[in-house]
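agent> Task received from the user: take the single chain below, predict its 3D structure, and emit structure tokens. No templates, no multimer pairing.
agent> Plan: (1) validate residues, (2) run structure prediction, (3) serialize to tokens, (4) report one or two observations.
agent> Step 1 OK, no nonstandard residues flagged.
tool_call: predict_structure(input=
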Amino acid sequence: MRSRRYIWWWVLPSAILFLGIILIPFITALTYSFRSLSFTTSTATGQYIGVENYRRLVFDQDFYNSFKVTFLYMVPAIILQGLLGLGMALLIAGAVRRARILIPIMLLPTLLTPVVIGLIGVLTLNPDFGVIGQFLNRLGLVQGAVLGNSDTALLAIIAVDTYQWTPFVAVILTAGLLALPKEPYEAAQVDGANRIQTFFRVTMPLLWQYFVVAILIRVIDAFRIFDIIWVMTRGGPGTATEAVAVYAYRHTFRYWDLGYGSALIMVIFVFISILVEYLYKALQKWQTA
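)
tool_result: status=success, residues=289
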């Protein structure tokens, strides 16, 4: 009995933290999504309007554009991070003795906040004094500011996000590679399999569960990207980089339409939940196929 009481004392701080930071704001946003609440409209003072905010959202073309932008960023970014992370993991796993030195250095971009990473991106891509910005202009690949061009702004955000999160994927895959059993490799060697065959038929099937974890974490985080975009472009030029999180923030904290902004947040939450569930099942089926 005493041990159970002590367990409750350990669990209580986490429960309070969960209640205060996650559950209460979620319930508040859910309540606001069914109300007409705006700090800029005198008639919208919190009246219950049912699903009117959601009906408005269905016919909002800018909302659909924000979803399009999110996927245009998310899909290539995650593919790049997965491939580069796998390559880095294979290199690190091949030099186990140096892993203790390489991993902390490699994780430096991930340890920095997205705001700092965004500022680094803005400075390095500046056409006047940025190293990468000047280099691209001299080669003639970009005319003017990279972030001021609707054709290159989203590519720049993908590159900056990949710079920050590829080491995170690499560390997860490195841990998986170092934990793989040796018996399948010994059997493959006895059967005369070469390195390519061993990689695709032994390493990848065994490593796939770690790959799934890394992909799911990155999908959840990438779909709600806000910090880097807001620091680098604020969703511009125009709406070229306005992802769903930026669009929801703009309506909630720039236009102060809390009712509609809360409805946007709820739809984003439901969509992420469905997307992750579907992606997890699809990846599991792919592994067993």
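agent> Step 4: summary for the user.
The domain at 60-288 is CATH 1.10.3720.10 (MetI-like fold).
agent> Done.
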